[in-house]
């Protein structure tokens, strides 16, 4: 199991337990094997077999609980994954043909997403939209296209979307990641602060979704991911405009989830 950049954490141990200890196939196999041994012990009077542990309480109850928990955890993962993706599967996924558009990927979370995609899928074509210049150097063999633009202007979004379609192609994955926070209270923030925050964090993802969603629906193929924040649920003082935009992103995500029942929507 490959460790994350944080190193060994409790999440690593929990993931190991979920994947190995509570693996339904392993649990069921162990239960079947123990049951067979029990019946053999009952059927044959063999000294060696009689020395093996008897499949009785509490062993039987422990194995049954192990199997039950493993199956319930697997069912929970299956249902969560299905619900999150509208019960839609896409068997035609080919990274050599996919075009991934990520906003705000010159640094931070967006850059980390791009770097992980490159590590896992070097053949993927990745488009980066960001106001700031690239703060990292992509590998020379990667297929990365960088467009520097201000996402707070609607006219720029329209123009850059058309330019991407002409120069690169139609994106099949859209990651709305770009965002900013001015850090002012409701009273202290200027009109310009509120305006640029809402335009960048909420209006830009909305318009980019409008630009690229029709192609995804037409071909019944693609992903759209919106990066939200805990501040949309528990907003702290000083970032009212930012928290409001993230709540809006959640609403946009949910509404389009219902509207696009045939599309994978994360």
TrEMBL record:
**Protein name as annotated:** Uncharacterized protein
User: From the Swiss-Prot or TrEMBL record, what is one GO molecular function term?
Assistant: oxidoreductase activity, acting on the CH-OH group of donors, NAD or NADP as acceptor
Q: Does the keyword DNA-binding apply?
A: no
Stored Pfam families: adh_short
The UniProt similarity line reads: Belongs to the short-chain dehydrogenases/reductases (SDR) family.
Source organism per entry reads Pestalotiopsis fici (strain W106-1 / CGMCC3.15140)
Do you know which Gene3D superfamilies this protein is assigned to? NAD(P)-binding Rossmann-like Domain
Give the taxonomic lineage as stored in the record: Eukaryota, Fungi, Dikarya, Ascomycota, Pezizomycotina
The UniProt keyword set, sorted, is:
Membrane, Oxidoreductase, Transmembrane, Transmembrane helix
Residues passing through the membrane, by range: 20-40, 55-75
């Amino acid at each position: 199991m490959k460790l994350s950049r944080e190193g060994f954490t409790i999440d690593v141990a929990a993931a190991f337990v979920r994947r190995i200890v509570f693996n339904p196939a392993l649990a069921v196999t162990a239960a079947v094997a123990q049951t067979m041994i029990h019946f053999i012990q009952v059927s044959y009077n063999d000294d060696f077999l009689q020395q093996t542990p008897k499949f009785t309480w509490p062993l039987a109850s422990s194995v049954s609980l192990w199997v039950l928990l493993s199956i319930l955890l697997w069912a929970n993962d299956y249902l969560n994954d299905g619900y999150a993706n509208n019960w839609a599967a896409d068997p035609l996924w080919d990274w050599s043909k996919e075009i991934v558009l990520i906003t705000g990927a010159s640094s931070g979370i967006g850059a980390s997403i791009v770097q992980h995609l490159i590590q896992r899928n070097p053949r993927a074509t990745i488009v980066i939209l960001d106001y700031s210049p690239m703060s990292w150097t992509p590998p020379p063999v990667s297929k990365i296209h960088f467009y520097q633009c201000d996402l707070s202007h609607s006219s720029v979004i329209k123009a850059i979307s058309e330019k991407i379609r002409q120069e690169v192609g139609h994106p099949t994955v859209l990651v709305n990641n770009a965002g900013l926070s001015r850090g002012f209270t409701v009273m202290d923030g200027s009109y310009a602060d509120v305006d640029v925050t809402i335009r960048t964090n909420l209006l830009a993802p909305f318009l980019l979704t409008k630009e690229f969603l029709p192609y995804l629906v037409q071909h019944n193929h693609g992903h759209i991911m919106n990066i939200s924040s805990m501040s949309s649920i528990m907003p702290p003082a000083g970032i009212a405009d930012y928290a409001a935009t993230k709540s809006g992103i959640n609403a946009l995500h949910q509404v389009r989830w219902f509207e696009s029942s045939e599309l994978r929507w994360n």
